[in-house]
Every structure is written in structure tokens, then in C-alpha cells.
Design brief:
Elements lengths: L1 E15 L1 E2 L2 E2 L4 H18 L3 E14 L1 E2 L2 E4 L2 E4 L3 E2 L1 E3 L5 H7 L6 E3 L1 E13 L5 H17 L1 E2 L2 E14 L2 H10 L4 E5 L1 H15 L5 H9 L3 E5 L13 E5 L7 E11 L22 E11 L12 E3 L6 E6 L5 H6 L10
Antiparallel strand pairs: 1-11, 1-13, 2-3, 4-11, 4-14, 5-8, 6-7, 9-10, 12-13, 14-18, 15-16, 17-18, 17-20, 19-20
Amino acid sequence: MSHYITLSQIQVQNANCVAGITYGFPAVTHFLGFTHALSIKLRQSHQITLDGCAIICHQHQLHVYRLESIKNGRKIFSDYYFKQSKNPAAFPYQEKNIRGDTPIIEEGKMHLTVSLVIECNGFNGGQADIQQLVNHMKRLCYVHKLAGGAITHIKDIFFDSISSSSDFRRVRRRLMPGFMLLDRSEEYLSEHFINLQQEDSNAQMLDAWLDFSALKFQAIPQLEKNESLSSESKAIWERLPKPDIGWLVPIMTGYQAISEPYEPRVVANTRDPSVPFCFTEAVYGIGEWISPHRINDLQQVVWRYMPPENGWYLCKQSTRPSKAVLDEMDDDMDQYLI
């Protein structure tokens, strides 16, 4: 029997929507960090631990804008820009030596509504203990930040013991409508990278990742009769599809060490001077948003910290439904709402 705590429809204001070089949704590490912070408090108060969590998004609103103009009778839109910025004060060194204007740093913020299904280990109480735990978690969640944003409302918190398919369907029903985040780095991204190397031996993993994350267009020449292709030839630009079908997005999934670990208090101004420290850089992958009704096991969508290996600190899902399994599942919603 597995135990899960569902934080249903958490409303978050001004969360970070920038994750490394990607933007649009917080990094996976934000949600696992929030789970870890709750686990520390619950281990002290209730002797239980929280492990991984499934991430379900119900609504999101990015704080961005773009300019609009008219050209040849058609609306033309510019790139998106963040609405917020912070203007740190200029330091004396800058005023004396650089003599530049005060720097302006764009801040990527968003409002979002998400649900988290969190693994719970070590709980052995009864119904009264469950209600006490739920009330305690509500108080804990409101004093923590999620992805740097303030939690303004939680619809409800549920404690579930899953031992049958009906228990699983009850949990899954609460998550709709919404979309779950799946890890597709080892399936779609690795497969596409192998195909690229067969075409070009100099292809790198970055090329494969950009095929999923970048917007690419290809010129289709429109040659007239007996016209040779040249730089003056007319063409129609068509958008190139992604290597696989689905709601595929670039995501940040962890960190890679770029230095040796330093002993505590060797590096100044670290967050926790009592633990070793090393410099890292972000690691990126490919994620897929899918509807919860296409999942038949919560273990398939739970993100967890992986044990550090050779300087890699990653968040992964231990088991994931393959594309073939998802395609075989019926999209008729009625059979799931029972």
C-alpha cells in the first residue's frame, strides 16, 4: 500500500517563470525543493518523510507583453518582454570606474495554479491523526514559498492510501482538468540524438535539444518556369514540426558540478555555510504535458532526486509510460469518472 498527500489546486502569485535559459514554467527543482522543505518540518513533528512529487498544472499566467503594429494591412507582433524589472542601486565602484546607468534586470514572474501529489512514508495513524496532519500541512504550506512565489490559497489537502485501482482513480479524478509533466529526455531526446548522429557525425546533444525547443522555419522555393534557384528566388516560409508529436517543452531538470566540492566555510556567502559547496550549471531536458486520464500508475509521474553520480544532480521519474502505451489508452473520459 502506498500513501500520498495531494495538495489540490495551489494558487501561487509571482512565482519564478525563468529556469536557466528557458522560461514559461518553474524548474522541477522548485517543486522538489518545496517538498523537501515540508519533509524536514514533518519529520520533526510527525516522524514522516516526503519523497517525490507529481506536478500537475491547472492554470498559468505569464507576466509578459508584446508590441503590436500594422504592416501592409496585417498585424505584426514583436517578441515577448517581461513586465517586471528590478533596478539595483549602483555601487561606488560602478559610479567611479564604469560610470554607467543603474542596471535594469528583467524579472520573469507568473501566477499559476498547480496540484502536487506527494509520496508519504512512515505514517501509521488513524483517521483523527490524518485530519491533524492535514491541518498541520495547511499551516506549513502558507508559510513556505513555492518557486519563489507566495501561496495565496489551497483548495484542499487529501491523504490517500492507494491499494486498488478504484483508489487510484479517485486520486486521478481530483487532478482534472489539468496537465501532468512527464520526463521525455531519455526517450524522445536520446532517440532523436542518435538519429542526428547517423545523418551527421558532428551533431551534438545541443542540436537535438534545440530541435525540440527552438522555433525553426524552412524556406520552400516558389520557382517559375525555367527559373534557376538563387538568392532572389521567391519562397514561402513554413514552420518545421518537432521531432515527435505531443505537447513537448524544454525543461530544467537539475545541475552538473563544474568544480570540486569545497569544505564548509571555504567559499564565502553560501546559503548554508555548514555543508560542503561546489559550483554547478543547469541541466536541461525535454518534458511532455499530458492529461491525467492517460496515466494508470502514479509511480509513472512522480519526480524524485536521483543519487548524485559523477557530479550530476538530477531530478527524474523512475518509470515513465512509453509513447506506445499512451497511444493505446482510450481517450473516452466517461470510463475514468467512476
